[in-house]
Amino acid sequence: MHNYICNKCSKEFETRKKGQTYCSKSCANGINATKTKINEKSIFSKGICSISAYILAIILSDGCLSYDAHSHRYRITVTMNDYSIIKYLRDNYSPDKKIYEYKHKIGRAVSYTFITTNEFDINYLRNLGVVERKSNIIKFPIIKDTYKRHIIRGIFDGDGSIYINKTKTNHNGIVKRYEYINASFTSGSYEFAKSILDILTKADIHCSLVKDSRRDNNCWYVKIYSREAIKRLYKYMYNYSSIYLDRKRDLFKVMI
């Protein structure tokens, strides 16, 4: 075994490889990124528009702001099971970076990750109130009403669903089965879920705020039960919109 000091973070490490200069891939990649000056375009340099509002919502639902101890930098990370949005983010904002792929140990599910260290965007998110470990304390960003439907669509693509709720009744031995279309948004933050409820209610989309009944599960649902309200939700989110998850929109369209 050989003992060295990392050329990036100055940490002492032990390795079987002779002449190794970095303690990890992260430190090596950090040095390489500095040398090549990776082109990371800002998402929010022009403020909030229909596209950046949607991306902001994706970050709020499936992303995070975190500090990387190896590179000594903050970064924005978005991880999704859907490749298309991650590819869109990479192609438009960090075309020189790779998309990280993670295969889950159970099942065949695959997650894809986009990472950017653009300083303007990191500071922009902080000014909007996006912090580390945000899940249970996140608040809805203060933006113009014009762009709120794009935020709602992004949240739906990240933490929303449309599904068939099946119930049955048994009256005098006669069993009847019923199927209803439901839509819902999920959040660990009451304030965030309440903001979604208020925005949808203002858009004449009737919905309810429901607390998860399971013990120690701090989760809130904004649920939409009526078919008419679900149709209005579809129009509210997708009419004249240019970016969304095709899979969810297509499923939504078929179900209504």
Give the topology string: H per helix, E per strand: EEHHEEHEEHHEEHEEHH
Which class do the helix and strand fractions yield?
Answer: alpha+beta
Main beta sheet: 4 strands, antiparallel
Query: What is the share of helical residues?
Result: 25-40%
Strand content: 25-35%
The CATH class of the domain at 154-255, by name, is Alpha Beta
State the helix count. Answer: 8
Number of strands: 10
Average of pLDDT: 88
Q: Between the first and last Cα atoms, what is the distance in angstroms? A: 64 Å
Across the major sheet, the strand order is 3-4-6-5
| Shape annotation | globular
What CATH architecture label of the domain at 154-255 applies?
Roll
Name the CATH homologous superfamily of the domain at 154-255: Homing endonucleases
CATH T-level topology of the domain at 154-255? Endonuclease I-creI
Q: Mind telling me the C-alpha Rg?
A: 22 Å
List unreliable stretches of 5+ residues.
Answer: none
How is the topology of this model organized?
Elements: E1 2-5, E2 12-15, H1 25-36, H2 50-62, E3 63-68, E4 73-80, H3 83-93, E5 100-103, E6 110-116, H4 119-127, H5 148-159, E7 160-171, E8 174-187, H6 190-202, E9 208-211, E10 220-224, H7 227-238, H8 246-255
Antiparallel strand pairs: 1-2, 3-4, 4-6, 5-6, 7-8, 8-10, 9-10
Helix pairs in contact: 2-5
Explain what you see:
By secondary structure, the chain is of the alpha+beta class. The chain has a domain of 102 residues: Homing endonucleases (Endonuclease I-creI, Roll). It is 36% helix and 27% strand. It is built from 8 helices and 10 strands. Strands 3-4-6-5 form a 4-stranded antiparallel β-sheet. A 4-stranded antiparallel β-sheet has the order 7-8-10-9. The radius of gyration is 22 Å and the shape is globular. The model has no long low-confidence stretch (mean pLDDT 88).
